[in-house]
Amino acid sequence: MQAPSEHHWLVRDRFLELRSRWMTLIGEHLQPPQGQELDYWRIEKADSMVVLPIQDQQILLPSPSYRPGLGQVTLDFPGGRVATGQSPTEAAIATLQRELEIGATSITALLPLNTYGWAINSSFSNQNLYGFVAQIQNTPLLPEGVASTYPASADGVQQLLQEMSCLQCRAVLLEWWLQQY
Predict the structure, then answer these.
(1) Which of 46, 49, 171, 178 could potentially form a cystine with 81 if both were Cys, beta carbons 3.0 to 4.6 Å apart?
(2) What mean pLDDT do residues 134-156 have?
(3) Residues 38 and 56 placed together within one structural domain of the fold
(4) From the CA atom positions of the chain, what is the Rg in Å?
(5) What digits encode the pLDDT tens for the residues 94-117?
(6) Within this chain, do residues 112 and 25 fall inside the same structural domain, yes or no?
(7) Is residue 2 scored above 60 in pLDDT?
(8) Residues of the chain above pLDDT 70, percent
(9) What angle do CA 94, 97, 99 make, to 5 degrees?
(10) What angle do CA 90, 114, 70 make, to 5 degrees?
C-alpha cells in the first residue's frame, strides 16, 4: 500500500456501511499524511435546498415544524432534500407546492443564490445546500399554506434572525440580503 502524500489522506478500509432511505453511515480507517491511523465516521446523504419566498415585499413562511434532532418546533423557510435524478430547481418548485401550496404558475422568478452547493458539514457529511429566492405573483390573498409573513426589509431580516435557529435558513436569508447590496 502506498504511503499518503503530504496532503493526501488514505482510506485504509471501510469497517461499517449502514444504509437507510435517509442516509448512509460509514465507518472507515483513515491514514493521515503524518500521524496515527484514525477511526472516522461520516454520513452520505442527499443534497438539500431552502427557498426564500417573497410576495409583495413580504417573506412568506409555512407553519413551524417539529425537528426531531432538536426535540422542538422551529421556524424555517420551505426546504427539503433534492431527490436522486431531481435538480435543485425542481426540488424548490415541488417544495413550494408542498409546504406553501404555491403552484409553479404563481412563481414569477426562481433565482438561485448559489450555482454550486454549499457544504453543510464537510468534516462529517457530503451533503450540500442550494439556496433560492422565489418571487411569488402578487394576489390579494396569501397562498393557503402561508402561516406568517415578515417584511422583506432590514427590520424583517433582523426579526427573522432573532426568531430563526436553523443555520441553513439563516445562511440563505443572509446571502439574499447581502446580494441586495
Answers:
(1) 46
(2) 94
(3) no
(4) 20
(5) 999 999 999 999 999 999 999 899
(6) no
(7) no
(8) 97
(9) 105
(10) 80
Average pLDDT (72-98) is: 96
Cβ(118)–Cβ(31) below 8 Å: no
Contact 171/118 with Cβ under 8 angstroms? Answer: yes
Domain count, the chain: 2
The residues near 73 (Cβ < 8 Å, ≥ 6 apart) are: 64, 65, 66, 67
Would you state the cell numbers that stand for residue 5, as one nine-digit string? 502524500
User: Which amino acid would we find at residue 64?
Assistant: P
Residue type, 29: H
Alpha-carbon distance values, 164 to 13, 132, 133, 155 (Å): 41, 17, 17, 14
Cell of 45: 446523504
| Cell 422568478 -> residue | 109
**CA dihedral sign, ordered 62, 63, 68, 69:** positive
